[in-house]
Design goal:
- The chain is built from 7 helices and 9 strands, in the order H-H-H-H-H-H-H-E-E-E-E-E-E-E-E-E.
- It has 203 residues and is of the alpha+beta class.
- The protein folds into 2 domains: 88 residues; 71 residues, Immunoglobulin-like (Sandwich), CATH 2.60.40.
- A hairpin with a 4-residue loop joins strand 8 and strand 9.
- It is elongated.
Length: 203
């Protein structure tokens, strides 16, 4: 059974697909020439046209060109999705080796690994890409995840401990390790606060 574009993908490309539909549906107008768009390096529009064509014809070659177009447009997640759909469609087909190689290149060029080692054991870890994206959450003593290259905000927190927030740069094809040891918050007396009376002792 052929797998079409996901609802999430269609939602993201809806504006471009609407334009494609208007161009193709105009009276006497020929459908957009996806191949010409691809050659002209209008990869984003070409990808939308190829996706629309694939939804109609179900040809693996059409999906391949959609994946190549998404890659050329720098739409990494969409390119990955298209290559994975192609691989799921024909896991032993003639395009399977190309799909696997393309996925490996995308991983090497756009992803890295972040490793967070932390104490105490009950602490929770949250990794958020500063450019936006899906956060990674886990627990100590360690979290390891493949993430998009770029800056990430790492937060480690636990009840009764002072939270720690770090900014970490993950480079493509590399691994970045962060070691975090939480500290207990300073007692009230050290801050100059009389805990019994709630009055400041600072003069």
């Amino acid at each position: 059974m052929r797998e079409g574009p996901s609802l999430a993908t269609l939602g993201r490309v809806a504006p471009t697909l609407c334009l494609v539909g208007l161009l193709g549906g105009a009276a006497g107008a020929a459908p957009p020439d996806a191949e010409a768009l691809f050659v002209d390096r209008d990869y984003l529009t070409a990808a939308a046209v190829f996706e629309a064509r694939y939804a109609a014809d179900g040809e693996p070659t059409t999906l391949r060109f959609a994946a190549l177009s998404w890659t050329g447009a720098g739409e990494v997640e969409r390119a990955e999705g298209a290559w994975r759909r192609l691989l799921a469609l024909r896991p032993r087909g003639p395009l399977a080796a190309e799909a696997r190689a393309a996925l490996a290149r995308l991983r090497a060029d756009h992803y890295g690994e972040i490793i967070v080692r932390c104490t105490p054991g009950e602490a929770r870890v949250e990794v958020i890409p500063t450019a936006g994206g899906r956060p990674v959450r886990g627990a100590c003593p360690g979290v390891s995840a493949t993430v998009r290259a770029g800056w990430h905000q790492v937060t480690v927190r636990a009840p009764g401990w002072s939270a720690q927030i770090e900014q970490v740069l993950v480079r493509p094809g590399s691994s970045r390790e962060l070691v975090v040891t939480l500290a207990r918050p300073a007692p009230a007396s050290a801050l100059g606060i009389d805990a019994r009376e709630g009055a400041s002792l600072v003069r």
